[in-house]
User: Fold this.
Amino acid sequence: MTERKNGLTYAEAGVDIDAGNDLVDRIKPAAKRTDRPGVMAGLGGFGALFDLKAAGYTDPILVGATDGVGTKLRIAIDTGVVGGVGIDLVAMCVNDLVCQGAEPLFFLDYFATGKLELDAAAQVIEGIAEGCVRCGAALIGGETAEMPGMYPEGDFDLAGFAVGAMERGTALPDGVVEGDVLLGLASDGVHSNGYSLVRKLVEISGLGWDADCPWGEGSLGEALLTPTRLYVKQSLTAIRAGGVHALAHITGGGLTENLPRVLPEGLGAEVDLDAWDLPPVFAWLQNTGGIESSEMLKTFNSGVGMVLAVDAEQAEALTALLTEAGETVYQLGRVVAGEGVSYTGSLS
Assistant:
């Protein structure tokens, strides 16, 4: 009888399958909260099934989006405040989907780490589920990858994948013309773009993440981790009311780069910077780094997270509708002949 020479297990190599199974069991209630018409199976299968007819579509076009959270993760990991980045992950994907006129249907996540820490991973995925609840998407699957040697202790990375649908012939942008009114929806803070610069500015300030927030309550780290706002349900309500010609999610590149993406050739945007007040977090960042207004407007959302180009005759009604849905709405300016974005007023 030959004696076994090597009794190593996968767990001893750094991958704990049991911990992964425990995570799935823990997050099942959170995923269950996201159920919606069209979901055909829960977590645990090799693939996730979704029935478009059951979701109410007759001639659907599918729309996909994928994104991450960027270096905002670094702050979340360093502070241990990780739940909000799950909401960020969903928002960065589904806010893009709705700009095409699509309703988010389902979401999948990818969570990668060197060693699975159950509590932290569960908080992140529970945050993802909360984001899905807020936008009406179902969390129907995902992947937890435990990869020893790939990440420093305590670190992890996230990616998200959203699929939405719209009926054929309803895609946006569509019908943008000179004179359309630009309606801006207020952001909840920095959202999930520009954090490499944010982290550099915090370093310049000499403050730690646990320092008192210079512009509000709580710690600096907690304030900078305020999750990205979800604009999906409000935007879909406006689209269905009629008169919305385009939506632009104001992410990396700010107003300067994102507004032109939804405008036809030969048209630009004129934006009045006096139409809204620069939120305190951005004023602090600008003052800390002595940043030019032009740099702020092409790096950060600067207080405006979504812009709608709407029919001028319906701008007032859509403003009222969006306000009733909980949005703070600014009339930013108009679509004009030309190219790019021109600014009047001052960012303050």
